[in-house]
Amino acid sequence: LSMKALLRRKESQWNGRLGKVDNCQVGVFASLCQNSMAGLIDTRLYLPQHWVNDPDRCKKAAIPVACRHYQSKCRIALSMIETAKQRGVRFGYVGIDGGYGKDPAFLRGVDKFGCTFVADVHCRQMVYLEDPMPSIPAWNGRGRQPKQLKAQNEAIRVDQWTSA
Q1: How confident is the model at residue 7 (pLDDT cuts 50, 70, 90)?
Q2: Is 100 exposed, middle or buried (0-12, 13-18, 19+ CB in 10 A)?
Q3: Is the dihedral of CA 74, 78, 32, 126 positive or negative?
Q4: Containing domain of residue 104, as a range?
Q5: Is 140 found in the same domain as 79?
């Protein structure tokens, strides 16, 4: 799974090809690869929230009415995996670029589909080398009663882990 920015004068947003914010359209792409061959199996246009809230703009850009709803890039990508599985597409694993690899909720979503995956992550991202087994700490009777989950193991930055 990957996102690509197409150079068109549409919207200021992150353009990964240029490594900066620029006027562009962003698409989410799924491809199937084997050995040295690859082919696209799904492509979808990402629409920023304020675009879908502007019917005149969408009409002028010829965006079909059925497509005029907001979805995050991660939600689009999860939907593409779901569609591929429903269509019986066979694949060994899902390769995920860093734009998605930094989103733990997305990675959990891929895992819930039962997919093996390899995700690119940013060097400053925190990861757990073992299951963090999150739980709400026991209340010691003083102060406020804990309500937030706390990891039982320490996280480590990716760059620290890879240099060890």
Answers
A1: very low
A2: buried
A3: positive
A4: 2-122
A5: no
32 has a pLDDT exceeding 80: yes
Number of C-beta neighbours around residue 30 at 10 A: 21
Residue 24: predicted pLDDT: 74
Cα–Cα distance measured from residue 100 to residue 120, given in angstroms and rounded to the nearest whole number: 8
CB 153 within 8 A of CB 118: no
Q: Do 20 and 97 reside in the same domain of the chain?
A: yes
The pLDDT value recorded for residue 1 is 63
- Do 143 and 75 share a structural domain? no
Regarding whether 56 and 104 lie in a shared domain, the answer is yes
pTM of the model: 0.78
Q: Provide the 10 A C-beta neighbour count for residue 131.
A: 9
